[in-house]
Every structure is written in structure tokens, then in C-alpha cells.
Amino acid sequence: MRRRPPRSLVIDTDQLDDLAAAFTVLARFHQEPPDDAALAGLRGLLDEWPLPGTPGAKEGLRLMRASQETGEDAAQIRHDHAWLYGTLATARVAPYESVHRGQDRLVFDAHTLEVRDAYRALSLQAPHLNREPDDHIGLELDFLAQSCLRALDALDQGSPGDAERYVRHGADFLRLHLLEWGPDMLGRVVAEANTAFMRGLAQLSLGAIDTYARATGVPQPS
Length: 222
Prior knowledge:
single chain; 222 residues; mainly alpha; TorD-like; 9 helices; TorD/DmsD_chaperones; DMSO/NO3_reduct_chaperone; TorD-like_sf
């Protein structure tokens, strides 16, 4: 049985801004591993991570710092990212919702199309439509970032009703899609990854999902 959506949402601009920033970063690195410059930039911002208050965030930050201390470089991280997500060969951890939730464990199934429809609520679409699945973990995290950014824009324009509608889109997407597979998938990344960076990325993602769910009142699986 699907969980009921929250009845009302309290919108806090500072929290929306923090959520948007965190999900934007996480979405980027799930889709594309960092080059040297991006890796240095991220490491320089760890002390300012916008969502530090969950067990996932604390462990993620610890792992990211361990990655730096042990000298993991961008080439190692790129190789691990490709090995995990299937760029080099068969994925150790498929990054697509449809593989985890579909009966036949195939991409471009009904779940992919449902995600595509959800993106349209914000006039978004996957960057490589019909060539790569819409339900990549990075794209789903980016949808949450975009819902927060749209809400902030609406508040800036004096439209709190529109802002709440955008947050509602994000909360519904979290409830119907990301929570149904993301935590398990990210847990597998923690277990399978060879680099502390990728384990840290997964833990930070778990922490961000936890924070977003609490902020929007969406019940999480036990």
C-alpha cells in the first residue's frame, strides 16, 4: 500500500535553499564523477555542507574526508563510479529505478514512464530522452533540487501557494518513487564501492533524503 501524502507543508526558505544546494551537488556526482577541479571544489566545501544533521550526513562527511586523507584522486573515483553504475561493464548497482522495482528488472518500463510524467509537472525532461532512462538516481535527486528551486522562485515572487505546490510535487515524487528504491540502492553502493568517495556520496544522499522527508512530512520506510 502506498503511503498517504502529507496534508500540509511548512515552507522554510533557508531549508529550501539548503536542500536545493545539497541535492544539486549530489545529483551531479551520481550522474558524472568529478574531475580534478570538481573534486577539489567539493572537498573545499565539506565544512559548509548544507545538510549536516543526520546520521547519513555525518558518516558521509567522515568518508569524504577519509577519501581526501588517503589520497583518492579523480581517476580512481571515475573508475569506481563506472564499475558501480555499469559504464565499464555490467553494473554492480544499477542506478535506475525501473531495474530495482520492475518485475522484469529492465530499464524503460512502466516506472520509467511514470517518472517521465512526474518530470513534466515541472516542465522537465531527461537530458537524453529515449536514449538513456529517465529514472537514474541522479536525475531523481535533481528533480527534488528543482522542486525546491521553483518553490524559492515562487516565494520571491510573492506566491506562497505556488511555492507549496512545487514542494508538494517534490514530496509526492519522494513518496511514490525515490523512497521506494533509493535507500536500498544507496545502501548497496555503500556496501559495494571501492572508494570512500562513492560510499560518502551514497551516505550524503541518504542523509539528504532523510532531511527532505522530515521537512515535508513524508513517512519513511522503517
